[in-house]
Amino acid sequence: MVRDGYIYGLSLLAVAVVLAWATGNWAWSIVPVLLAAFFLWFFRDPHRTIPTGPGLIVSPADGLVTETIPINTAEGPRLRISIFLNVFNVHVNRSPIAGVLSSVSYHKGQYLNAMNPESADRNEQNTVIVRGEGFDITFKQIAGLLARRIVFVPREGDRVERGQRVGLIKFGSRTDVVIPSDAILHVKVGQKVKGGSSVLAEMGDAAMGAAVQTPHRAANARVPLDRDQEDSL
To answer: Do the domain assignments include residue 73?
Structure first.
């Protein structure tokens, strides 16, 4: 459970108790109790089995793959994988690969529907570049129509492990992953993925058929997701 779940959940339960005591009617507590249950469920943080093996790129988020397209960047051609998170998905974000955070950049923006392709450039977002495993990847936490708070805990220069918890986006949102153009995709549009455990693509020798090995448990170490990226800038 992410810390925010306890904050919202317990606060609403306290409101329910106060309403019931003040009115003498427990019916007034039904709505805050239901909201408390929703927030406790929404901020769940389940354990995930992290695949190991050279060159594997895992999903940074739970959700639905909505796009896999080639794009041109300043570094050359790349592939972009877009994942849409609705309010029913787990919203904890994880690092797609192991490596060092060479850049962490937060940008204010709009709150277009995360399904809108323009949201990738125009919405509030946090862009992270991870350098490691012989290649770089970029992933973006993109706010959606309802999402109004992006959380990212590690700082530039920190090392992260594949599948490590790094932050979350509250409520509906989108996550983009930009990977080398020669990566071999493992997903397609319309496929559901799970953060940290679903392999999006693989690189190098892994693409020649190396097996996905036993779970890597260290990446499941919990990170307190309570620092707002906006406040750290």
So the answer is: yes
